[in-house]
Design a protein that fits this description.
The chain is an alpha/beta fold and about 425 residues long. Among the domains are: about 30-105, OB fold (Dihydrolipoamide Acetyltransferase, E2P) (Beta Barrel), CATH 2.40.50; about 110-260, Rossmann fold (3-Layer(aba) Sandwich), CATH 3.40.50; about 355-425, no CATH class. The chain contains twelve helices and 16 strands. The strands form four sheets. Strands 1-13-12-16-14-15 form a six-stranded mixed β-sheet, sandwiched between helices. Helix 4 crosses helix 6. The radius of gyration is 21 Å and the shape is globular. Bound molecules: iron/sulfur cluster (2 copies).
């Protein structure tokens, strides 16, 4: 398992895990129940278009609200059993939809018809929930065409090997996805970014430049990858689209390729599961599968004090229950034994500088954290480089005072983004 350590004179370096020879286990396709999160708040029940008891078909597009285009894709054929408000990270208001498998599987024909046309409109209408996490709006920004597309096969966090597995086992789908991405974005240049250790054996049939990136975390952070591969500095806080760039995960590319090739939405996701002993498993499950079902299939039982993390040890998010679904971007699930859990403290900063030394973007964190602790987010952004942070979590990991720096940073960015939205709406 992952352990904290220090070397005073040089910051620790963390290598990404390597895929050895694992084979992903396909868990039963119909665990019986499913959980979906729609990125829209459930404020008023009279705005709902769906209700418990409604039937859904596999791959069907569920648009829960009459006044919002927000949608989720049904991972199975069955019945809606509940629709409820759900509070996500930082108070983000979502809508939770529970399904129960019921009857023989039927495939919704909607995407089959839509797939006849490969266009950004089709992607916007259908690909928002694809395994791998695709943001179709980032592919065609309004004021700047995408010139270079990076397809990242580098893991999003430590301990995960999901991206490497996708690249190794779904090569044809990745190639097809790259063609589709090239077509809808018009990108002149497509680069497949892989870890140095995965570089060998990849041929030109992927129809992309294949470039190796550092095997040291957090090389997969988009801004760092752009700097390493293209030699371009991403200005702090600037969306990549403003520079004519987009980054897509290799799994999203594979899901896209497979969906259009088969004219049926891809639903299966590769997830790396690491239990409290450090045992690693790879599973194939549909998006929406409850974490509890995966753990039951793998014989993992959560004990008192265990910490459950979705994403990875550095930048992942704690889940407070296993009654939570695999989402399109859930690459890794991690169970930490209570003995390995590092608890945050309210101790003050001792100005040791460990955080500054390890930060890949040289944020003056020892100064920044003082502002974040007191909610002075504007000064943090204007004078102490908050937006240069690439969300790697390394500063929290090395802080001997156990200050939850990364959580402060995420909260600050969230609050500033909310303010920006409010200001835009009031103009
Ligand atoms: S401030 Fe912390 S989370 Fe942000 S890039 Fe630096 S080390 Fe990573
Ligand atoms: S925030 Fe933590 S790591 Fe950074 S200087 Fe203070 S005590 Fe050291």
């Amino acid at each position: 398992m992952f352990r904290r350590f220090f070397r005073r004179n040089s910051p620790p370096r963390f290598s990404y895990q390597r895929l050895i020879a694992e084979i992903a286990t396909a868990l039963p396709a119909f665990p019986g129940r499913w959980i979906l999160f729609c990125d829209h708040p459930l404020d008023r029940s009279d705005r709902l278009r769906l209700k418990p008891g409604d039937r859904v078909a596999t791959g069907g597009k569920l648009v829960p609200f009459i006044d919002s285009p927000a949608y989720v894709i049904a991972p199975a054929t069955g019945v809606i059993t509940a629709i409820e408000p759900f509070l996500g990270d930082f108070g983000r208001r979502l809508t939770r939809i529970d399904l129960r498998t019921d009857g023989p599987e039927t495939i919704d024909p909607g995407f089959t018809e839509a797939a006849a046309e490969v266009s950004i409109e089709t992607l916007r209408a259908w690909a928002g929930d694809l395994p791998g996490g695709l943001d179709p709006t980032a592919l065609t920004p309004p004021d700047q065409p995408i010139e270079t597309l990076l397809v990242s096969a580098v893991e999003a966090d430590l301990l995960s090997v999901s991206a490497q597995y996708v690249l190794k086992t779904r090569t044809d789908a990745v190639r097809q996805g790259i063609e589709i991405l090239r077509q809808v974005t018009g990108a002149k240049r497509v680069i497949l970014a892989v870890g140095r250790e995965s570089f060998q054996g990849l041929g030109g049939h992927l129809h992309a430049e294949i470039r190796a990136v550092s095997g040291i975390y957090p090389a997969s952070a988009p801004a760092l990858m752009v700097k390493e591969l293209l030699g371009r500095q991403v200005p702090a806080g600037a969306p990549l689209a403003k520079l004519g760039l987009a980054v897509v995960s290799v799994e999203a590319a594979a899901s896209l390729g497979r969906s259009f090739a088969e004219k049926r939405l891809a639903l299966e996701k590769i997830v790396t599961v690491v239990d409290r002993d450090g045992r690693r498993s790879l599973v194939t499950v549909r998006v929406g599968t409850p974490v509890a079902e995966i753990f039951e299939a793998l014989g993992i039982r959560l004990g008192a004090g265990d910490r459950l993390i979705a994403g990875g040890p550095m930048a992942g998010a704690c889940l407070f229950t296993d009654d939570h679904p695999v989402r399109p971007d859930t690459h890794c699930l991690l169970v930490q034994d209570p003995a390995a859990v590092t608890h945050c403290s309210s101790d003050p900063c001792i100005n040791c500088g460990e955080c500054v030394r390890i930060c890949p973007t040289h944020v003056p964190i020892n100064m920044l954290v003082r502002l974040l602790e007191t909610g002075k987010y504007d000064i943090a952004a204007d004078e102490y480089d908050l937006w240069s942070c690439v969300d790697c979590g390394l500063c929290s990991y090395v802080c001997p005072a156990r200050i939850p720096i990364f959580q402060y940073i995420r909260l600050a960015k969230h609050e500033l983004a909310l303010r920006q939205v409010a200001e835009t709406e009031n103009v």
